[in-house]
Design a protein that fits this description.
Length: 147
């Protein structure tokens, strides 16, 4: 591994950790699980193929994921702060906290049509991925290989 590949590999790991931390801080659990799984697969693929990527592709990958984190922070920061405030108030007044369904409903209203289409595509791909894993497990086949 050349030194530039080593630097890129280190940058990929650092960016991946940033994505996971952003998911943990800003996403509801169900969305976080899907996002973490998607990010894991994307980062694993890029990490394994780092030596065959051009510098421009490497930069674009890291830039897009950093932009994704900033978009999540900007989109969810007011809502997260609102939930934190309501959680503090509910705890101090012994009230029940908002349900996942009410939060999910608020989340959907914040997305553009393009983002909703992307989420539908991600949901479909995730469902297909889970079904493929379940089929392999039922047939005692080896796990899915992402290569």
């Amino acid at each position: 591994m050349s030194s530039t590949q080593g630097v890129f590999a280190h940058s990929v790991v650092r960016c991946y950790r940033q994505v996971l931390a952003t998911h943990r801080a800003y996403l509801p659990l169900d969305m976080r699980l899907v996002g973490d799984m998607y990010a894991r697969d994307e980062f694993r693929t890029i990490y394994e193929k780092a030596s065959s990527l051009q510098e421009q592709q490497q930069s674009a990958f890291l830039s897009e994921w950093s932009s994704y984190c900033e978009t999540l922070k900007a989109s969810y920061a007011p809502q997260v702060q609102g939930l934190r405030d309501s959680n503090r108030t509910a705890a101090s007044e012994n009230q029940t906290l908002p349900s996942t369904e009410s939060v999910a409903h608020l989340d959907a209203s914040m997305f553009t049509d393009e983002q909703k289409d992307t989420l539908r595509k991600l949901r479909r791909e995730t469902k297909e991925y889970v079904e493929a894993i379940n089929e392999r497990m039922d047939g005692n086949k080896p796990p899915v290989d992402n290569q």
